[in-house]
Design brief:
Elements lengths: L2 H24 L2 E7 L3 H5 L7 H23 L3 E7 L8 H7 L5 E6 L12 H10 L2 E8 L5 H11 L3 E9 L26 E4 L2 H4 L28
Helix pairs in contact: 3-4
Length: 233
C-alpha cells in the first residue's frame, strides 16, 4: 500500500475514534455554584465589622466575582443557591458581576446541602443541572463548614467532579471569619473516574488543563438519594 494511502487510512481511523469522544465531551459541562452568599449569614454573629473580617469579606467577594468572570468566559452555567428564611438575597456585587449573562439561575434550598433529599427545592435544582448537562461543579460560597461542605458531599455522592475554590469560600460562624477556607476538606470521590480537588482561585479552577473539565473525562450523572437534613448553619 502506498505511504500516502496508509496515512489517509490512519487519519480516518483516528477521526472515527475521536468522533464519539468529541460528541461525548460536548455533553459534559461545568457549572459554578455560589452558595448562600446572603447578608444574614454574614451579620447574624455580630462580627462583621472587625477590620480583619471586613478585609476577609472583601477578599471573598473579589474571588467570587473573578469566579463569575471566569465562568462567563468559559460559557459555564452559574447557579446561585439561597437559603430560605430571613437571610436576604444574594450579595448585590455578585449579581452585578453576572450582569445580563443568560445562563445564570437562582434556586432556593431549605437544608444545608443542596442535594439533600429533605431539601424541598431539590428536584428543580437537580433538573436544572441535568438540563444543562453539568458533570463538573466549581464550588464557592458560605458557610464553609456547613452548607458548602454538605453540598460538596452531596455532589460527590451524586457522581460529580467537584472543585472547591478556597479563596471563594468562607465560614462566618466564628468570631474571626475563617478565610480562605483552605485544606479543610479531605473528601475522596465515591464514583469511578471522578475527582474531588481543592484549588486556590478561579484561575486554577477553570484552567483548560484541569482534570475533567473541557475534556471527555466525565460521564452522565445519576442521582442518589441523600438523606441528610439540617438547619441553616
Amino acid at each position: 500500500m502506498a505511504p500516502r494511502m496508509q496515512k489517509r487510512l490512519a487519519l480516518l481511523a483516528t477521526l472515527a475514534f475521536l468522533g464519539p469522544l468529541a460528541a461525548f465531551a460536548s455533553t459534559c459541562k461545568t457549572a459554578l455554584l455560589v452558595i448562600d452568599m446572603q447578608p444574614g449569614f454574614v451579620t447574624r454573629g455580630g462580627n462583621e465589622n472587625s477590620a480583619k473580617n471586613k478585609l476577609s469579606f472583601a477578599q471573598l467577594l473579589a474571588a467570587q466575582v473573578e469566579a463569575i468572570r471566569k465562568a462567563k468566559q468559559h460559557h459555564a452555567a452559574i447557579v446561585f443557591l439561597e437559603f430560605k428564611g430571613n437571610y436576604g438575597p444574594t450579595n448585590e456585587e455578585l449579581k452585578k458581576a453576572v450582569g445580563t449573562y443568560p445562563n445564570a439561575e437562582f434556586f432556593t434550598k431549605d437544608t444545608d446541602g443542596a442535594f439533600n433529599q429533605s431539601n424541598s427545592f431539590r428536584a428543580e435544582f437537580i433538573e436544572h443541572l441535568k438540563k444543562e448537562k453539568v458533570c463538573d461543579l466549581v464550588v464557592t460560597g458560605a458557610n464553609g463548614g456547613a452548607c458548602v461542605e454538605e453540598s460538596i458531599k452531596g455532589a460527590i455522592e451524586n457522581c460529580y467532579n467537584v472543585t472547591a475554590v478556597s479563596e471563594g469560600i468562607a465560614d462566618f460562624n466564628f468570631e474571626t471569619f475563617i478565610y480562605p477556607y483552605a485544606d479543610k476538606y479531605k473528601f475522596k470521590p465515591k464514583c469511578e473516574g471522578k475527582f474531588f480537588r481543592e484549588v486556590t482561585n478561579a484561575q486554577e479552577a477553570f484552567a483548560p488543563e484541569a482534570p475533567g473539565q473541557f475534556a471527555p473525562a466525565s460521564s452522565p450523572v445519576e442521582f442518589n438519594e441523600s438523606t441528610t437534613g439540617t438547619t441553616a448553619r
